[in-house]
Amino acid sequence: MVYLRPSRVLLLGLSLSTSCVVGGSIQKNDLSLPADAQTNRDRVKDIFTTSYDAYKKYAFGHDDLKPLSKSFTDSRNGWGASIVDAMSTMWVMGLTDDLNEAIEFASKIDFSKSNTQDNVSVFESTIRYIGGLLSTYELTGNQNQALVDKAKQLADKLSQAWVGGSDIPYGHIDFASNTPAKANSNIAEAGTLTMEWWALSKYTGDPKYVQLAEKSAKRVANNNAPLPGLPGQVIDPSTGNPVGGYVTWGGGSDSYFEYLIKYPRLTNTDDDFWSNTWRTAVDSSINNLLSVSDVGNHVYLADYDSNGRLHHVGSHLACFHGGNWIMGGKLTNNDTIFNHGLDLVEACWNTYSSTATGIGPEAFAWKSSGDNGDFTGSNNPTALQEAFYVQHGFYPTSSYYILRPEVLESNFYAWRATGDSKYLDRAAQAISSFEKYLKVDEGFAGLTNVNDNSGNGTKVDDMESFWFAEVLKYLYLTFDDPKHVSLDEYVFNTEAHPFKAPSVKHNYGTGIDQNTPTPQPTETTPTTSTEDSEATAPTASQSVPSLTDSLGDGLGLGRNMAKLFRKDM
Ligand SMILES: *[C@@H]1O[C@H](CO)[C@@H](O)[C@H](O)[C@H]1NC(C)=O
Ligand SMILES: *[C@@H]1O[C@H](CO)[C@@H](O)[C@H](O)[C@H]1NC(C)=O
Ligand SMILES: *[C@@H]1O[C@H](CO)[C@@H](O)[C@H](O)[C@H]1NC(C)=O
C-alpha cells in the first residue's frame, strides 16, 4: 500500500495558524502524466467537438441530439439542456468560441415557462441548469451576471415546490399553474440541492435558497431510517415522511449521499452535521451493505429492502460511490473508507473490462453467500447470466449503456488520489471503446447491449446532456494537468459542474458518534475569504410536517429509475 496517512497532528489543534494544509488533501502530491496524455486528451476533445457539432447541426437550442435520426428531443423542458450542461466542459477544454456562443444562448433562456408539456423536475433542473449556469459564471470570472439572473429566475419558480412551508419539495411542478405534480419524491431529489442553491444564495445575497435546500436535506437525514444513516429511497413531500424503506446507493438515493460530504467540503461550514451524517452512512454501509461476490471476490454495495433482506444488485448509477468514498476518505483522513472506495472502483471497472465492448451495463447482479442475505430475488440468473457470472463475478441485468459517467468519474478520482497509472490505462481503453462502438455517422450514441461487439448491435437514439457535462469532462481531466481543476480546489456537483472551494480544512466532521467529544480545533480554521459566510446562514428549524392533501400516485422516480428497472438480458 502506498497510501500515505496524513498527519493527525492538525486534528489535535496544535498548529492551526499555519497556512499549510496537510490533512485532508484529496490529490496525491507530484502526480505526473505520461507522454501520451496529450494524445488521449485530444481524442476526448475530438469526441466532444464531433458530438457538439452534430448537436449544433440538428438540435441546437433543444435538449438532446437524436444521433441516429439526426433530429432532437426535449427531455428537460426544451430549454437547451445540452448547451447549458456543456458549458463548463467547454471551459475545461478551452473551446472558447463554442463557450461564448453557449453563454450568449443561456443568457436568454426563458425559464418562466416550460417549452414542453412536461412538468419541471426540481432535481434535474437544479443539477443541470442551475449547476451549469452558476459553475460557468464562476469559471468565466464572475462577469456574466445574466447567468446568475437566469439561475435565479429558474430557482424562484422551482421554490414553489415547497408547499405550505414543508421541508421536502415536490419532485416536479407544473410551471403553467405553479402547482406541484402529485407524486412521491425520493431522497436524491430532496437531498441534491444544497451545493447549487448555496451557490445561488452566495451570488444573489439572498439566503432563502440555501435555507430551502438545507432544510430538505436535513429532513431526509433526520427522518427515521431502516439502518443508521441510510434512509429509505422514497419520501412523501406532503408530510416529509419516508415511504417504505428501500435502501440503495443507486438511482433515487445516490446523490443524497454524495452531497453529504461534497456540501461541507464546498462550504467549509462549521456545522459538522453534514460530514457526520456522511460518516454514519458510510460506516453503516460498510457494516450492513458491503458484499463480496463468491466468484472473483469483487466488493459491492448491496441494496437492502424493507424486510431486512439484502439484494445483490448494482448499477452504473451507483458506481459514483467509489469516487465519493475516495474523496470523503481523504477528507476525513480515514484509510478504511478510502481503501473500500478503491475496492468499489475495482468492481465497477470490472463491469467494463468484462464485456465484449469494454463498456459496462446499466444494471447488474452477483451472488454472495458471505453476508446476511443470499437473497437474489427476481434477479435469479438465467443460464446465460450464470455462465457470464462464473467468468466475471457479476452478470448484467440491464445491458444497455446510455452514455453515463459514473464508472469513469470514480476512475478519475482514483487516478488523482493514488497516481496509479492503471487508471489512466483504463480511461484510455474506454476512449477506444467509445470510438469503436459508439461512433455513428454524426455524433455518438449509446448501446442497447454492451456485450454485443458484432458491429451490428443496436444503438440508442438519444444523446443526453450528461455526455457533454460529465463523461467527456471526467475523461478529459483524467489526462489533463492535475493542477488544472484540482480536486483540492474544486468540488464537482453531481452533474460534474465544478465549483471553486476554499482551502481544504483540517477535518470534516467529528466522526460517526456525534455525541462523543473529540479534540476540536478552536473555531479559528483559517479561511481565505468571506466565501463561506453563507454556509452558516441559519436554517429554518425543522417545521411540523404540513398536512396538505395526500398523494400516492406513482413513485416519482423519474426517467433514470424507470430505465433502471427495465430488464433486457
Ligand atoms: C403536471 O402536473 C399537473 C399537476 O399535478 C398534472 O395535472 C399534469 O397531469 C402533469 N402533467 C404531466 C405531463 O405529467
Ligand atoms: C474509519 O472509518 C471506519 C469505518 O467507518 C471506522 O470504523 C473507523 O473507526 C474510522 N477510523 C477513524 C480513525 O476514525
Ligand atoms: C452484421 O450484419 C451483416 C449484414 O446482415 C452480416 O453480413 C455480418 O456478418 C454481421 N456481422 C457480424 C459480426 O455479425
Automatic annotation (TrEMBL):
E.C. code: 3.2.1.-
Signal peptide: 1-23
Pfam families (UniProt xref): Glyco_hydro_47
Cofactor: Ca(2+)
Residues covered by region (Disordered): 503-552
Annotated catalysed reactions: N(4)-(alpha-D-Man-(1->2)-alpha-D-Man-(1->2)-alpha-D-Man-(1->3)-[alpha-D-Man-(1->3)-[alpha-D-Man-(1->2)-alpha-D-Man-(1->6)]-alpha-D-Man-(1->6)]-beta-D-Man-(1->4)-beta-D-GlcNAc-(1->4)-beta-D-GlcNAc)-L-asparaginyl-[protein] (N-glucan mannose isomer 8A1,2,3B1,3) + 3 H2O = N(4)-(alpha-D-Man-(1->3)-[alpha-D-Man-(1->3)-[alpha-D-Man-(1->6)]-alpha-D-Man-(1->6)]-beta-D-Man-(1->4)-beta-D-GlcNAc-(1->4)-beta-D-GlcNAc)-L-asparaginyl-[protein] (N-glucan mannose isomer 5A1,2) + 3 beta-D-mannose; N(4)-(alpha-D-Man-(1->2)-alpha-D-Man-(1->2)-alpha-D-Man-(1->3)-[alpha-D-Man-(1->2)-alpha-D-Man-(1->3)-[alpha-D-Man-(1->2)-alpha-D-Man-(1->6)]-alpha-D-Man-(1->6)]-beta-D-Man-(1->4)-beta-D-GlcNAc-(1->4)-beta-D-GlcNAc)-L-asparaginyl-[protein] (N-glucan mannose isomer 9A1,2,3B1,2,3) + 4 H2O = N(4)-(alpha-D-Man-(1->3)-[alpha-D-Man-(1->3)-[alpha-D-Man-(1->6)]-alpha-D-Man-(1->6)]-beta-D-Man-(1->4)-beta-D-GlcNAc-(1->4)-beta-D-GlcNAc)-L-asparaginyl-[protein] (N-glucan mannose isomer 5A1,2) + 4 beta-D-mannose
Keywords: Disulfide bond, Glycoprotein, Glycosidase, Hydrolase, Signal
InterPro entries referenced in this protein's UniProt entry, alphabetically: 6hp_glycosidase-like_sf (IPR012341), Glyco_hydro_47 (IPR001382), Glycosyl_Hydrolase_47 (IPR050749), Seven-hairpin_glycosidases (IPR036026)
Family: Belongs to the glycosyl hydrolase 47 family.
Protein name, per record: alpha-1,2-Mannosidase
